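So, can you check these tokens?
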Amino acid sequence: MTTTPAGHRGLFHHVELWVDDLAAAEAQWGPVLLALGCEPFQHWEHGRSWRLGSAYLVLEQSPALLPGGHQRLRAGLNHLALHGSRAAVEAALAAGWRTRVDTGEAVHLIDAQGFELELVLG
């Protein structure tokens, strides 16, 4: 069994999503991440990040990005699931996300670039 170093919690150090349109991604992801209690962390020409505790999420429009856009049904990331709240769902909807599935226990949302975010309620 592997343990994390002292002072570190959770499984992830960070998650990095490469996006086709950084401004659109920031406009949609930012309000949701703020509603989840994240704070803006890093800001550079091609990226932004938000942090909660020692973990952070990065959105980057890398100059090395290959064309073709994100497709959650191809190999790679299908969706990102985070602990959420109804307030975070409302922030997402206000920022232009659309609901794919709402089971009452979790809400699956899709952003304008095709990324799926599952907010697990409770």
